[in-house]
Amino acid sequence: MAYWLFKSEPDVFSFDDLIARGAQGEQWDGVRNYQARNNMRAMKKGDRGFFYHSNIGKEIVGICEVVAEAHPDSTTDNPKWECVDVRAVARVLRPVSLDEAKAEPRLKDMVLVNNSRLSVQPVSDAEWEIILELTGGTQTL
Questions:
Q1: Residues 48-65, buried b or exposed e (16+ Cβ, 10 A)?
Q2: Alpha helix stretches (DSSP H) within the chain
């Protein structure tokens, strides 16, 4: 299993919105960055990701799971843009802010810390465990 981080502006699409979509989840559409798209192309069903609220909050608030691998993005007619479908699986007990991640020496190489603008990014196994430690655990939905 690989790990990822998905960023969304909570006033546009929040973790609560993803929870409301239920088991079928939602396509992670609208991504127009080649690196982020390529990250989604690398995802496999069952991969997990942190759900990060960008702009407002700037914090990891939940965990989602890839339920459909890369497919054409329905929000465009351009075939070069693809997306995956994700569903919410757990809420973190304590959100982890960008500032907190930046202050944690063990996360100095994390993409979020070094390129916080990338909307879909990889997370290493070690970074995943460190973030989970910082959250104090999760509450399965």
A1: bbbbbbbeebbbbbbbbb
A2: 15-20, 34-42, 98-103, 111-114, 125-135
Rounded to two decimals, the pTM is 0.96
**Rounded to whole angstroms, how far apart are CA atoms 101 and 89?**
22
pLDDT average, residue stretch 31-44:
97
Residue 110 makes CB contacts below 8 A (sequence gap 6+) with 101, 123, 124, 127
pLDDT in tens, 79-92: 999 999 999 999 99
* Residues 101-117 pLDDT 10s: 999 999 999 999 998 78
Confirm if 33 and 16 have CB atoms less than 8 A apart: no
The single residue listed with the structure tokens 């559409």 is: 29
